Write the structure tokens for this entry.
Amino acid sequence: MAVTGLLLIAFLLMHMFGNFKMFLGEEAFNHYAGWLKGETPDGGILYPILPAGAFIWVFRAVLVLAVILHIYSAVTLWLRAKAATPSTYKARKALAQTYSARTMRWGGVILAGLLIFHLAQFTVHSALTAGSFAGTYADSPYKMFVGEFQQWWMVAIYAIWMLTVTMHVRHGFWSAFATLGANTSPKAFRVLNACAWAIAILLYIGFIFAPVAVLVGWIH
């Protein structure tokens, strides 16, 4: 669970970096989107090591596998914890001290549901709320991004979703490194906790910045 969680956090950081290309204009963002899919004249990312367009499918397969293993690990650990938890009321005691820690399981379920919608919206293009991909957006990822986030309620939903994501990341980042043996002293605890907060805040600001910029007209 720790390894897959850190892999998914690394993906979020890369995804956030890609979203910032929206500030470089339509041509730059569309080129970036096409480069990931191997649709650019240079053959795209990792060409010619991989055939043009192959990287994105390998990348998606790795991410899907990571998500499946992460969920499997979460369910397995939950069942083990449930089996080990005393059933009497007096014997129960909550050990988690933060809201993020106490809501990790339900937060994960919410994340999974919203992730499916997000993929249906921006990857499959079956849940677009401002027009069809082939029509209104004219096959332009930039226009699709702008069209979706010109709606205030979509930005609000995205902001709430990212809050859930970063709460999950804040506790997950600390827990992952603690599981891997990095929490060896009070100082290490403080460093890990500070890093977890820094990553969570960076991700929230980084992911919400471009949608808000679209909403207020900085990106159009």
